[in-house]
Task: structure prediction
Amino acid sequence: MTMTIAATDVVVRDGSTVCLRQADEQDVKGLLRFLQSLSQQSLYYRFHGRARLTEARIRTLIGADGSPALTLVAESGGHIVAFASYYRDGHSPNRAEVAFAVSDAVQGHGIGTRLLEQLAKCAREAGIQTFDAYVLGDNRQMLEVFRNSGFTETVGIERGVCHVILSLAVTDHFAEQAAARSQSAAAASMRAFFEPRVIAVVGASRTRGKIGSEILNNLLAAQFSGAIVPVHPSAREIAGLTAYRRVEDIPGPVELAIVVVPADEVLATVDDCIRKNVRAICVISAGFSECGADGRAREALLVERVRRAGCRLIGPNCMGLLNTDPAVKLNATFSPVYPPAGTVAMSTQSGALGLAILDYAKRLDIGISSFVSVGNKADVSGNDLIQYWADDPKTSVILLYLESFGNPKKFGEIARRVGRTKPIVAVKAGRSNAGSRAAASHTGALASNDVIVDAMFRQAGVIRTERLEEMFDVAVLLSHQPIPKGSRVAILTNAGGPGILAADACEANGLQLPSLSETTRSELRSFLPAAASVNNPVDMLASAPPEHYRRSLAALLHDDAVDSIITIFIPPLVTNPQTVATAIATAAEGNRGKTVLGVFMRSEGPPSTLAPIPSYAFPESAALALARVTAYGKWRSKPVAAAHAPDRFNPDEIRRIIDGALSRGAGWAVPDEAQGLLAAAGIASATSMVVATADEAVDAASRIEFPVALKALGPTLLHKTERKAVALNIRDEESVRRTFADFATRFGREMTAVLVQQMIPQGVEMIVGALQDPLFGPLIACGTGGVLVDILADTAFRLHPLNASDPGAMIDELRGARLLRGYRGSPPVDEEALRNVLIRVSELVRVAPEIQELDLNPVIVLPSGARVADVRLRVDASPPAKRGRHVEY
Result:
């Protein structure tokens, strides 16, 4: 049987990893040994008392003898610990019988559920829609696996046997259940890093200045709540602690090992940790994938051993991790800075930058809950950490410094889910070509296309900042103030110039300055000088005392037209900054859920009495941070809803067309196939006919009815407008013949046929498309179309699949959206029709993942409906290049 699933490491309920892969001929003896190791009760449950443990029986289970079966095995420590099989029903090819067996030692760890998820995925790809399972009534564990899977379940009971019927359709409920399992498993796998009871420091040293010594002393200085054990080849005592030659020699369990040894000793050290059953390993040592081919090979071996053992790895080539929770007090880094405790968690790919980040956070008094330098991200990545922090009650804001993505699609899914409750702020390095090269040389991975990264962040609600300084500006706002309920901002100042700068920066970043209510203006007039401005911005004049700040801010907070307030103070000689800060903080205590920011424009920074109001040195910084957080709040307030399956959508016909195109091999589909695909997807297009002669062209034009368009076709004539291979508004037979002859003369053998097409009434020209990216997977695009595509570069992207709100958000991003909504006297067109085309293209890519490129350009959006004037389609059945085994959650 053809391989349908690559080897994949998955994290299970207890936080360990197991490798899931398809069983083959080489596994017959191993599966037989596994079954023979099961208890009598487990065998009874699996085979209903009729176990026939023979190699021939195993060959049938895995389909090695040609039977319609598929088996997945779960391996841990190089041994099979579970397997799951389906056997296809010959009478009903869309159904299959499913059964499991899990080693007694690991039952209850969630392995059966993960096997079911992967087996169902394989079954769906094979056209199977339903699983049947026959489970003994007292086999409660297996019944729970089915019940908690999230699949729609029907259960019947006859003679003590439960007949479980599972619909394999991926419903919203299944997606929610799978996501909850993934998050719980990933969080469990991280706890040994952040909440260990015993830490071994391998490579500890008495010599200060060495990394092993600094990490050991930082653990001691932070007063780690658990036990610290140095590991050294000869020393028996370091820093007053008993030292051991090997991790294996340490009495009792060890949860976390910090490895600081030369690169060529790391593998042996990790083997030592694995023998000790250490679940979390942090390799500080450099000399791996960042150092070329030999380092990459060494890192691959390291990951293989860690995954095979079922444990997790941070690093290599990192600076460690810390957790400021008073119940833990963990500083397993070589940073001289231990930040104050707080609610901001952070991950960075750059160790050197991590040192600066911790110092900067302490200087700004930003409280950190936990911090991780992930280094080369050989195993643990931001995906793991985000899911741990999602469940961490000590964390309310997540910061990421990223240079590359290992599994960006999974990152987007996780961030989109977690961001609904906890904001994620990211700096993604490598925006420019030069930056991409720098990032690649530092991490050994190429930076991704920045446009796609930006699209993914928008889709997932990640707050993207341009600079680290801006990241912390946003972080301090998120950690101290409520998220704005809207984009309406009031500005309160004692100096006109900074107020104007703040207003300009707000409006440039999508914020609004509303008119204040008459009640608010009357209240302000009652105590401000006559020369003060009570409009927005409110300028109290330079002489404004602290009491004016307090009363003015209180009035603005009670104005229903205001969501956020930026309060600016430039210290004049007559006013004490300390008392002004106290007045602002006092007024903000009753802020009624509104967001308040301060701007103290002085070298000393804000007085401590301003807390918890975040303060900025300049108005522009405050406005930009507020704009970022406001946009996040808008994203978070939108309801999450899957796109409804469109009507007039024929997946069977779509598959027939795609399979027919693929039968000729990879490449561009012929026009009839591309047009047929649109029709099957319910996407309206201009009536078209492909012809080979001038007479056929005349006949086609008569059938379609004049006026028509003619387009020259051929493998090299993809950009028809540039080649002048399009003629529009042809109104008679003579013009058809003349145009056909012109095409034949100019293009010769390049032209294989001519497309005769109905002219579409004038409308707004847009482009809709799909593209397979080797790293991010399928992308959906929407933009200003026609001949303006390349000139305006006005295109929005989203990762597939689109949800119900994505099409509208994509259109909102476009400068050309104004053309759809009526511009300079032109009537608005049917924007809903364009959104519908986007949903249909997203569904088309789901049904036909072999689509590599799909261009609908232009899509002419009319006052009623939308019609596609030109379509290009390229298909390829080859799977995308694999990047090796990866972890799934």
